[in-house]
Structure formats: structure tokens, C-alpha cells
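Notebook, p. 212. Picked up where the previous page left off. The plan for this session was modest: take the two constructs that came back from the sequencing core last week, fold each one, and keep the raw output in the notebook itself so nobody has to go hunting through shared drives later. Recording the first one now, exactly as returned: residue sequence, then the C-alpha cell string.
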Amino acid sequence: MGYGTSSEESLGSNPIVEVNLVATEEDNFYFLNNPDERYVGLYHRHEDGTLMIRGGVLGVVHELLPDEIIVRKISYVDIQDTREKVSDVFYKIWFESNTLSDDELLSLQTTIRDGKKQSGRTEDEPLVFYKKDRNTLENRKDIEGDTFEQMCQYIFTQKIIDLENYFQIILQELPSENNQDVVQYVMRFNHDGVKFNIEMAKKVGNNFSNILNLSQLTKPKFGNKINVDRAREILDTNIFELLPNQTTRQDQVNDFFTEFDNLIGPPPVFQDVDGDGVGEDIQNKEQDEQSRISFENQSNAFITRLDTQASGSSINQGKTLESMRNRLNTYLGDVDNVIETLEDDRPEYQNISSGFLKIRKPNQAIIIRAPGNDLLEFQKGNSYLTDGFTITMWVRFVSKTSEGTLFNFGNPLQDNGEGFRLETKTNIDDAGNYKRWIRLAVRESDGTLRDNHWGVENRARLIDGSSPIGFYGDSVIHQLYPNITTDDLNEWYFICATYNPNVSEVGSNQRFNKQYWLNHVNQNNEIVAFSGFGAKCKVEIISRSDLLRARGFKIDDLTIAADEDTSPVTTQNNPPTVNFSFEIITSEEQEEILENNPIVQVNLQALPGEFVFEQTGEEYVGPYHLHQNGDAMIRAGTLGVVHELLPEEIIVPVQQQTLEEEEQIVERQIQQQEEEVATQPTITIRSGGGYWWQNLPQ
């Protein structure tokens, strides 16, 4: 649909007021410029009542294109009641205005002659009576004419009730015929200057001709003489039975459902709003309500649908489809209240990983640097500020209160600092609950500090490099950042932190809109996947359990046993002293490490309850051997042999491996790789009070 702004003043007073209406086959909607083409589908309504195709957007003002305007054709059924009322008015006014002789009456009545209904009869011929005068021979062709139809449609659309005040008989003199005066009787309808003329009769001299059939009009004749022969022709003197046909119970049931099918009416049109396959939003509410008996007692009205629709009609209270449904529910408890247990056929997730790195103590860290103390690729020319970057990691928090750095390059929080920092912080809210929140801070080349906070009601987003930390109180600061629950310390979280320099960080009128700063609101204030507006820094979080459920897994216990570090958090040595680092080693270096770790004990025996596999936690019973570094592996082994330490073959004592032993093993493994930390800028992955990083779940 084409929208324009050239006639903004004229269009501004006619916005869209109803959207997503549904036109069905039964609604009889047709295009205004093509009355023969039916329209079925979504449409919307403007304030002036104009209907146009497509669902529309509430409040939008656009040009009314004639090719897209639809109108409803009034069907024969719609105005049937109007036709009946108008016909009754015709005869009432005519009968009150004219007195006919006996011969005139006979000429106007209907009889059966030669097996056919014919107008005009004699005293000896039978008189045909009709249920309604409009069904007589002459009326069928006169009252079904175009003029009569147009008049009835006008009365229907204008909702005119007091019809008699708008009708009158007009006498028009016509040229004489056979030296006799000719008068035309015309029934005229006049409403606010809108006129319709219906020719009722033509009188030549004293005789009527071309008159609407008045076969229902008769005169009684008084007398005591009875023609026996005629009586026998009419009266049935043979009595065959005294009792009528008896109705069975099954007949009553059949009749009930037949009548119910006739009275229930068509079901409303529902739209599936939430995509669950079930329609819940009624689209033709007004049309459906007007077809029910509580709206107007019409001859073709249906049972009232809702109890609220019958509230203004005392006679229909308790006689609605809703009240019937509620009553039927009391008979179907054994059907409606059946508890069915569905079998969970989802595959159960196996907690398998190729391994993970544990960083437990505060200020433990991994330092990543390029070989030869060269610059990393993203450092060259500060490309991370022009191209942007994304940081992802799996984290498990081992306490409610610990906080610190998760990932940093340089120190962006200093006034003259540079780089970026991903950190976790905690605070206590007004209810005394611990709140953990994640922050990404980036110092741009011009000194502007960016972070990922948003605005909420009563607390605006701070712009131009201002930080909400210290500006808002400690008890509410968590409301401006993405949160991680502190109730479940066994849960893993996938954190994705992004800096996008191409995002336009403006929006002084959106400072309280959270979705805007998450890049989900465009210039038209519409919700989109990515708008290009909002915060340059963004942090998204999903738990491991939620991720696995989304992938269709059944989640059991994902707990990985570990000792919680209860040592106090310290802020000394910040940036911290690095106690280990890693880098890619060559095959020659790997071979050198293996040579220093031969088998030192063989033919040892693992008894039940002593050892489990390190990867799976499954118990192991049988022979094993020990290497020089203390690792125990399955099979008896050969003394002095050097081989690769396969993770799936390593076993550990049950509930005997202490934190100190693990740290000693780690120290021995990295002792061959340790180097002195250079002054070159590096990326640091830091513990900050006890966090674990794990690779992506398989």
C-alpha cells in the first residue's frame, strides 16, 4: 500500500481505528471499483468508516486508494425483514384509503383454474389464500422489482423504524382511455428528500387494472342456507383415527439436535495470535454479536453466545452458549478431568566434555600473548575499536559475593587508560538479596568510556561516556545490567560480550527504554532484531540448562563436584601477579614433556569404591599404573615406559583428591612451559574471586 504525506492535513483526521479484521465468504465484501470481484482476507477500518484491504497498523494515516477500498453488498437475506415490514405498510395504507365493490374484489382475487393459479374469479370458483399478501401472483413480480429493492436497501442501511410516517398514496391523472378518466395510484416514500415511487394500481373509469393483488381481502356473506354438496367437497367426514402419531424419545432427541443446529449459528472467526495452533482472538465480534437474539429479536437470529451479551436481556439470561457449556461441564467430569502422563521421549544429555580449565583463587589468571612478544592482530592499529570484537566464555560462579575481572585488555577504567574490560559485580538489593551483574567497558581512542548499561523506568541511561556506577545507589545498580542468579551455584552460563562501533549511540528521548539500548528499537519505534541504534557495548547471557533444553535435551544433574574457595577477596596487586600462562607448543616440546613423565609403579590393583574415571565419574575396578607426575591410568603398565596421557584412561581416587593435590599437578604440568611475563600489553583472563571457564557443551 502506498502511503503519502502530500495531503497530510486532510489525512490526519482519518487514522486507522481497527486492524486485522477478517472478511469471509459469508460477509459479501466486494471491491468498490470492481463490484463483481469478491474480497476474502484481512482488512482494516478508518475513522470515517472506510474499509480497505490488508491488516493495517493502528493509528496510521494513509491515502485512501479507490482500488483498495471494499464495501459490503447487502444480500437478500439481510433485508428480508425490512421487505416484510415495507409490504405490510403498503397494504395497511391502501386498505385504509380505498373501498372496493364486490365485483372489484372478485376481479382482484386468486383462484385455481385448469390446474393453475390465476387472477380473477367468480362466486362458484375456489378462493386461494396466502400466508402473506406479498406472496400473491402480482406481488411476486411487482414487489421484487428494482425500485422496491433499492428502497428496501435504503431503509435497511439508514435503520429507519417508523415507516408509516414516510409513505403516502399519490394520485396522478393520466391521458383518458375510451373517453374514460384514468388515474394512477402511486405509493411514495420520502425521507429527507430521498424519494421512491411504487405504482400500486391504475383505475380506468370505475374499474381497477394493473393493481397489486388483494386476494386476501374478502367480504362476509350472512345466511342460513347450507349447500350440502359444497360442504361434502370441503369437509372430511371420514374419521380414520382418534389419536395423533406418537413421538418416541429418540424422535425427541433427533428433533432437539436438528433445532440446535439451526439455532447455534456459524462459529466466530478466530485468529491464532500466539502461534500455538489455537485461535483465541475473535475477528468478527461485532458481526457475530449482532446476529444473536439478545441484540435484536429477528426471525433469523441465533442463540446468544456469551453471558455478558445477555446481561441486558433478562429473557435470555442463562440461555447462552456459554451457560450451556458451563452446565455441560458438570456432566463430563470423567472426560475433562482425566490426568494423562505423557512420556518424556527427549534424549537425556550426557555431561561430556573434552575437559575444562579450573581457575579458583582470586587473581589467578591466564595471559595470552603473541609469540615473540609481538602485537596480537587486534592490537595492531587498535583495530578492535574500528572493527569491533566479541568475547565468549562459559563461566560457573562458586560464591554469591565474589566479583572481579573476567576478561580484560589494558585498563579502560583509568582516566587516561585504554583497552576493554569484562567484569562481574555484585550488590545487595532493598530486600537483602545478592544480585550478580555483568559489565563490558570499552575506552575509545578519544577517551570516551562506553559500557552496556540500559535505562529503566525512573532510571535513565547515561550517555556521553558517563558511568551509572556511583551515580545510582548500590541497591538498584543491578537493574541497569544483565543479571545472573545467585541461587544456583552449580549452573554454568554462556556469556557473549560484543562491542560494535557501527551502532549509533544516540537517543536522548529513549533513555528509559531498555529495548532501545539492546539494539531492538528502530527510528519508527518498532521492535526489530537489530536496529543499529542503542548501546555499542552489549552483553547477552544464557544458562547451560536453558541452552540444552532449547536443543531438545532432557536435563538431569549437570553438577561438577568441586571444592568452593572460601578465601577472602582481595584487591591487592591489581592488575594481579600472574602465576601461570600458556602458549602453543611444538611436537618436539611435547615429546620433551612426555620423556620427563615415565611410568614409576606397575601392576597396582584398584578395589571397589576406591577409583573412578576422571572424565565420567564411573567407578573403575582392576589393574592400574602410576606416572612420575602422580597420574593414575588403567591397565598394569610397563615400568619406565613413556606414553601420552589419554584423558579417558585417567582415574582418580574417590573423594580423596584435594584442591592442593590438583594445584600441585597443574604446577608440574606447566612448569616446562613457564616464561617470565613481558611488559608487552596482553589479554588477561582473570579469576576475580572464584570462577570456572569451560569449553562449549557437546
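Okay, moving on. Second construct, recorded in the same format:
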Amino acid sequence: MNRRVKFACLLLLAIGLVFSPNADAQKKSATSSKQKPAAKIDDAALKNADARTGEWITHGRNYAETRFSPLKQISNANVKDLGLAWTFDTQTDRGLEATPIIVDGVMYTTGSWSIVFAIDARTGKQLWKWDPKVPHAAGAKACCDVVNRGVAVYKGRVYVGTLDGRLAALDAATGAPLWQVVTVDQTKPYTITAAPRVVKGKVLIGNGGGEYGMRGYFSAYDAVTGKMAWRFYTVPGDPNEVVPAAMKPAMEKAAKTWSGEWWKVGGGGTVWDSMAYDPELDLLYVGVGNGSPWNQHVRSPGGGDNLYLSSILAVRPDTGALVWHYQTTPGDTWDFTATQHIVLADLTINGRQRKVLMQAPKNGFFYVLDRATGELISAEAYVTVTWAKGVDKKTGRPIEAPGVRFKDGPAIIQPGPLGGHNWQPMSFNPQTGLVYIPAQETIFGYTQQKNFKFDKNGKWNTGVDFALVKDPPTALPTGHLLAWDPVAQKERWRVPYIVMWNGGTLTTAGNLVFQGTADGRFVAYSADKGTKLWEVTVGTGVIASPVTYEIDGTQYVSIMVGWGGAFALTGGSLGLPTTPGRLLTFALNGKQQLPIIAAKPPAAPTAIELKASAEVIGKGGDLFARSCAVCHGIAALGGGGVLPDLRYSSPATFNSYQKIVLNGSLASEGMPGFKQTLTAEDVDAIRAYVVNRRNELAVKK
């Protein structure tokens, strides 16, 4: 294996890189006609979500996003008796990341392509389905698969963000759309994959697109009418733009920390996931993403902190006015987002009870902040960190190691762009005092991209060249379920993973932690010691987070099962079968059997005649890395079993590359044309590269 391919193989494990609606016929009311489903989920209910012990009414179970359930019918003593109660087939075959919501005996969840389902939480019977009919060509604008992380419910409505940038309100009883608003410029590569949140009658939603050169923001919409109440831009725009009065102080402060003409390349800072809310302080906490381009030297040539990239923002939900911010990675140049799960808790620290905010962002440090003021209380590395020596307790800034900004040469650092922790939610158990983190040990080599030119037509704009590291790392990334003590800032126990990139966590009063794994298992551990107590094979990889609820005296545990997402698309197949996504629900003494489909390895491809020169093949490899690897895998090693492995394409497909890649003949199937960014000569070079990779495989076989 040559050096470039060897490095690509290492990278695929270290970084997951890429690239009028209607209700269905089944519109049955989930409850009696006397009570509209989810009608009682109002501001008071959301504020006191913990009191509704048998339900799961908001994304993180409560505004604090703890993902802790007080239910304990299922406990460390009897979890071994857990069995399958029912299943639901989503009929979608891409990644499933949703956290289901359970209200009034109804489960609301989403599949890939932003499709919404209402399901009887007792039986798994579909009550209704709403398909937003997202154009499949929009998948090319999604950095990390066509996933969706779930819905919000409020006053008889179900809210969902769609991949193509809409926010929709649906009738909770029927799934009929009540209103829809477009929250982004749909001519640009914006996407929505996050679950909305509802705070004080407003629906909050952000978006993704930072890798493509988009400017980040999050917005608040009236829950009844869909009218936008306010919008907060996370990075400053063109200095000549008019800024609303409420946002002006924040934008003026931010602009002083940028240089050059950053607004012409987007800036980044997309808010693509985490939010939390403290009703007592009336503060909404929002995690902000990476810079665009990643490379600060081309984004903001004069340096600077580049506010509010990689920051936690505390804003007033009524107006969007900024109260405080804390920046985890000033002047981010490594894709170190702070969009990872935010958890609120009250902890006793040094004999004093503190209202804290906790986050384990990509950069590898676990932060504990005073959530009233943003003051840093503590920060320690929860995974291996080489880019910084620690966090200065006085300034709150990381102490960077020399040479990590890769201006004058390559820098190989830990964590890599996939982070020490990614989007998969962590959970906090107040009984054990521990946070349970899907932690990752990743490594990556950063190198300046020569002659960087911003591409506004849907290409990744990182400013980093992934192929030019002279001496690639030899360590492979790993991962583990990490039990972290946020007071002592120490690890209490860990369970190693077989494969990196696993599901989020759920913890319960039954002294349990639940988690799905990339290698196709659903596992329960004791929350205090990490002892494995129960395990079931689910047949395909799991990246979503479990939930638990209780109906008629029976406690259930549910999880969405469907392999996909960023790492899957670029990391190659794990050898698991590609099966339709499922929702699996377990209960004590459940008796159902889950059919497991065995993976069938593809037949060895035959070699195809290739007359291209080494120079053309090399050019094709560079083009593939920048235009194709985001969906079809680094070094053309396949789309993780999610999308086709191009090396196994039919001869007819190879003969149709111009029609497919250039002209978009398969756009309706999610493969758009690249006429705006590639030439016919480019496509021929890409074809030559993929054929060469196929032939290497054929020889190997």
C-alpha cells in the first residue's frame, strides 16, 4: 500500500469527512377525541419536565438536557431479563440519530430525510407519518449524512427541521402540516439536522453548512404562527450590513476579533446541535460550531479569537440578546466545534453549591462553567490532548503547544476533527454524580492547502490539505464509554469500544447506563461501576441515543437503530448488513425475536482496462478527496455500507461517469451533478482513480 493510500486509511478512522408536503393516509388520533395529543405540553410542563416521570417530553428529557430518568422498574438487579417488546421499521436506509419524544402514550420520532412518525408507544403501531419530500439532491449539501435528530412538541403541535432548511409545525393528532417556514437561503448549502427546542412559546432552530462556507446563526419562531421573532448571527458579517439593535453590541465586539474579508468566505459558526435552558436564570445556552474555512490563516489572516466560533453563548430567549459567552477554542483552526451536548446541573464544588454548565466539546477538555456568569470553574482533558498543554484557569484560554497551527508545516495533533466527543449526547446521573461520555481517541494531520480558493458551489472549503502530511501517524483511533466525575475532573471508569463512533447515552435511577454501539449491540452497564449487565445484538450499527418511559405500570427502553452519519460515510463498511432503519423497544420479559440479517460480502470485482497515466490517476485522487470522499469514503473505500462502494460499480456505471457525475442523471436518487465545479476532464480523472482503486482490490482478491 502506498503512502497516500495508507494515510487515507488512517484518516478514514480518524475523521468522518465528507460531503408541498403532505400527511399520509393514516391520520388516526393517538388519544381520545376529548384530549388533543400533547396539548398539555406547555411552558409549565416543559419547565417541570422531571415531574412527568413516565414521559420524555423534550429532547434531553428536561431543559437541563441531563438524559437522566427517575424510572427504576428496570434496574441493575433485573436488567438481565430485558427483552424485545416491539419493533417499528422506518423504511429508511440511511443514518438514524433521533431521540424519540413520548407524550400521552404516543412516540414522535424521525427517520432519515427528515420524515416524521407518530407511533403507539405501547405497541409500535404507526399512527401517522409525514414526509417533507426533501429533494434528494439536497443530500449533497449535508456534510454528515441525511440524518435528523428528532422533534419538539408543544401545545398539540410537533415541530421538525428538514434537511433542506425548513421548520414545520404539524398537528400532533394527524400529522397534518399547520405551517412551514424556510429558515435558510435554499440556494446555498445550508442544512438542518438538529432537533428544535421550544422555550417560552418560541421554537428555536439552527443549521449546518460550516464546511461549505456558510455563516452561522440560530433563530426563534413563534410556536403558533411561525413568524420569526429574532435571529442571532454567531459571527460578524459584512461591515456595511445593518445589525438589529439587540444584536449590535455582540456583533461589534465580535468584529474586533476578525481580520481580512472573512464575510466573503462565510466565517462559519453554524449552530447545528446543542441547546439547553435554565428557567430560573432565564438563559438559553447555545453551542457554536467551527470556523469556515477551518484554516484560520485563510479565514482571518491577521489571527484573532474570531468570536463567536467554538463558543457557548448565553442569550435571553425573549430577544436573543447576548448575556455572556465562553470560547472553548479561540481562533479555531482545527474544526473544534462547541456544538456538543450541553448539560446543566447543581454541583457542590469546594463546599459551595454551584449552578453549572458542563460540556465535553471536540477539543478534548471537559468544561465546568458557572452558568449564571460564564466563569470557568474547571477544565481538564477527558481524552488524549496534544494540541494544548491545558487550560489557563485565570484566563480560561487553552495553553497551545508550539507549531499546532500548521502555518509553517504539518501538525499532527490529538484530538482530530471528529473530536474527543462528537454530537452523540452524553448524560448526567445526579445519584452517582457522573457524566457518561461517548469518548473518542482521534488523531489527524493538518497541512496548509496551497493556493486555496473559496468555492461557493457546494464544495468543502476547509483550507486544509489532507494528503500532504509527510509522515502520517501510525496510531489508530479508538474510543470508550467514559464515566467522568465533573467535580473532581477525573475518570471513574471506562469501557473500551470495538469501533469508534458509537451512540449517545441514557442513565436511570435504576443504576443503569444504556448505549448502542457501532458494531451492532445495545448494552446496559451499572452506572456506579461500569459493569456490563446486559447486551443484545441489533444487527446494524447504532449512533442514536436511547430513551425510557412508562405506560400502564410498564417501563420501556427504546432506541433508533440505523448505521450512518459522518464516520459511516467516510470510514468504509464495518461488515454489518445494510438494513432498513428500525426503532427497537424493550421491556422486562419481552418475548419478541428480532430477525438478524447476515452481512453478505460482495463478490470480488473484476479488473477494468485502464490506460490513464499515473499523473491523471493522481489528479483524480486529489479531486475525489475534495469532491467525492465526503459521501463515498476516503480513498474510495466505500460509503460505510450506507452508500454504494464505487469500486464495485458495474462496467455500465463506469461508462456513464460523464452523465452521472457531470450532468446529474441520478440526481433524483441523491447524486447531484457537479457541472459547476468539475470539468469533463476532471470527471475522467476521477473515473481513472476509482477504476485504479477497483483494480487494486481485484488484484488483492
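Notes on construct two before I forget. The CA atoms of residues 166 and 183 lie 6 Å apart.
Flagging for discussion at group meeting.
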